[in-house]
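re: that complex we talked abt at group meeting.

here r the seqs, copy pasted straight from the sheet so there may be weird spacing, ignore it
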Amino acid sequence: MHAVELPSTGYRRAMLSLREVSKTYPGGQLAVDRLSLELAAGETVVLLGASGCGKTTTLKMINRLVEATSGEILVDGRATKGMDPVLLRRGIGYVFQGIGLFPHWTVADNVASTPRLLGWEEGRIRARVDELLERVGLPPENYRERRPDELSGGQQQRVGVARALAAEAKVLLMDEPFGALDPVTRDGLQRELIRVREQLGLTILLVTHDVTEALLLADRIAVMDHGRIEQIASPTELFASPANEHVERLLDMPRRQSERIQNILRGTDPPGGRDDS
Amino acid sequence: MNSAQLENQLAYFPGYFANHVLLTVGALVLGIALSLPLAAVAIRRPGLAGPLLGVASVVQTIPGLALLALMVPLLGRIGVVPALVALVLYSMLPILRNTVTGALEVDANVIEAARGVGMTDDQILLRIRFPLSAPVIVAGIRTAAVWTVGMATLSTPVGATSLGNFIFSGLQTQNTVAVLLGCLGAAILAIALDGLIRMAELAAARRDARLAWTSLALFIAAVVLATTPIAGNLLGGSQRPRVNVGAKTFTEQYILAELIADRLETAGFEATIRDGLGSTVVFQALAHEEIDVYVDYSGTIWANQLKRKETASAQRVLAEIKTWLLAEHQILSLGALGFENAYAFAMRRDRAEALGIETLLDLALHASSLSVGGDYEFFSRPEWIAVRDAYGMKFAEQRSFDSTLMYTAVSEGHVDVISAFSTDGRIAAFDLVVLDDPRESLPPYDGVLLLSRSAAARPDLVNALRPLIGSLDDRAMREANRRVDLDHRPVDEVAHELSRGLAIPRR
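got the structure back, here u go
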């Protein structure tokens, strides 16, 4: 499914580094606890965990939608701490869980958000918008002038992805991007994301609680719990040697589902096998 | 009601309407210009939003007339400025409230996305929050527009001309045509403004640029058209020396202002009447030289300005206020006009005879079973305190009325005795008796002509007004009041007749 297996990052340039990053919220709640993580250029890492495990906070600390309490974050070798957060965000693509398209703007204006903020000239913006709409499967001639409320949920998130990519960011942060979509739409978008990633050489950090999605998209999966990474490994390694019981339990459900589907396909599905307990 | 009366009032309409439009639109534009940046601050710091909206709500709870009147001492002047300030304050709450609420209620996902794509806080406010809450903001502006049109009618007593001049003078002189004209004008203006803003709202909702420009063009055209009648005044107008004549809010004052204006016009001045001014407002206006001349009453100055509680002879009061006014405010008391409009207690003749009441002493004996009516200020005035204390007066009931309704109230038996004005034509017309004041507890109320410092320094002006001194006796004044209040004759006609009847040499 993915072109390159990356068991380690040793031989590639690090595009994104988190070193001992912690976040304590004003109430005293420790959301992320000395988390370290490194993504090589072109790599896709999925932060997997239940809600409240600190995965979204981790993602938001990278473009400083949430400020880290301690630790260091580097994007393409540069520490984010001293940067203007606004300029930092313009250089990083972000796809939101709630999609968050600007409802009063056309599809083209939404996609053009960051290039406009960066002061690109209009001809270049127009060409870029058309290119990206094409890439995410929304023919520009049909979709440029539409408004978000005229689009389906799947189409809206395609625009969300195009908006995140518009300013030629090399790093893409995705917060449960397909969570609200129906399975068929989700599958289509996941496959397109893989295609776009290969074409553009994107480095992606994606947050999800959906184990199957993590397995399908990730070069490496970082399993999170209580603000820490319990294990980070390729999907194959994860199945082969889960670090603890929690990781094992997490993988149990997709394994059972997959076995059952294989049985169905072979015609050997035992009666009563639908019991999900 | 007749067509001559309508014609007479209609002549004032363009001017009043134009001033009303300027006042309303000016207040609305300023209100929007102040509210939006304030709302922007409150949105940035949600901790400020609560207190800010709280203050705006408190302003809103102050009755409109009180807020307007408060502006006069606060700003130390009368006219358009205090009216405008009060109206701006009043218009701000709905705009502020809707802008803050609307902007803070924008979908949190959209705001997070705006931060995520790299917008600054200002950009989020201007490109996301404001446009997305535009319908709510415009709704607030519409509310403010309608309120402001209505409240602007109350700016007459602080000296700003508006459609309220129709309403205030109409109510005082019982001229229904004038009152209706004022209300009609305000209703037309409110509907027109609301319609235009709705049009702009629609343009914003549909993102229709042409409709937006059309509504803006219509708006500007309407304002320009409505204000043409006073454009001349605003740009300088007449070459003749100008004099501002002030008047309080009752019939006699309207007549006297017209009488003074009539004298001045004859002498070659351009006189402007600013009527419907509150009793203390008019004095301050003269002290601040915003009006040049008006008629006040010696007892009023004695009690309200000199804060004197005892009474004295008419001559002594006149002499003392003259000295005091000149020393304290450089105001020239040119002299008494000749009539006295004193507070007096009046009863229906049959009722007084039945109870055997002829004097305030008799009244005090029956007071505990009688009700007394007064105008709005009477029961807080020193005169009432003086009478009450001199005679040990203690009434069963005390009621406040509009001064025009007082006479009807006593003649129809709603109250037993009222604090009448001695020159009021209705005393004779309703067959009321005025009770004697054997203890001389009520001060004298000679009508005196007061001139501001700058007016007193203009010999031509002083000479034009001096013949009025001593020319107007009680009988003439009462007759003029009666013609307006009971015959419903236009004030300017009655004043003109009065002017011609005076024993004054004319140029």
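couple things i noticed - Chain A touches chain B at residues 63, 65, 86-91, 94, 96-104, 113-114, 117-118, 160, 163 (CB under 8 Å). Residues 220 and 234 of chain A are 4 Å apart (CA to CA).
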